[in-house]
Amino acid sequence: QVQLVESGGGLVQAGGSLRLSCAASGRISSRSLGWFRQVPGKEREFVAAISWGGGRSVYSESVKGRFTISRDNAKNTVYLQMNSLKPEDTAVYYCARGTSASGSSRSGEYDYWGQGTQVTVSS
Fold it and tell me: pLDDT (tens digit, 9 = 90+) per residue, 56-65?
């Protein structure tokens, strides 16, 4: 069994920064990790993913250049550094374990999900 627990969400003004963390218990070796977000009434949206070794990362176009995903396998933790935040970044952010080592933007290629952490960006 794998558990993922997100933290670091909160309220921030536009232009500010937040760093999300996701601590994993259980097997995440040889697996990618990803971040998604969801606004009520909308589908879950891909944000970023990182490969098992950390050498490959992918981002959605909406966050590229502003967000950075990283992982510390010794701590079983994945991070999402979010800079230059915009009101449209407001959402519940979820981390997830990938079914492969390389990372994907497709939610169907993730098998375990955290409970989410709320990020609210005020204008």
Answer: 999 999 999 9
